[in-house]
Amino acid sequence: MVRWMSTIRVAAGKVVPAMAFAKDMVEFVKKYKDAPPLHVYADSFGDAGTIRFFADYDDLAALEVIGNQVMADEVYLKKIEDAKDLFIEGSNRTVVMREI
Length: 100
What we know:
The chain has 3 helices and 4 strands. The chain has 100 residues and is α+β, with helices and mostly antiparallel strands.
């Protein structure tokens, strides 16, 4: 199993719309065939103002299939572009982890 996680920092004064955007994206990605559930969390302690998305895939090939669908989806890309002022530029970090 592999876990994909994307972390991003919310811009000052944008917490409410950023959380609404995050919840919307969780619902939006359900449309992709064979996509695993996408989860979203907001840090309560430590890095407050950080939103973390994660999903678990059977393997890297499954992650690649969904990634290709997402990156070819003009609606998805527009949603991301429209939300860019909700987040601190350059704060996005994406990692893929393997279960041990």
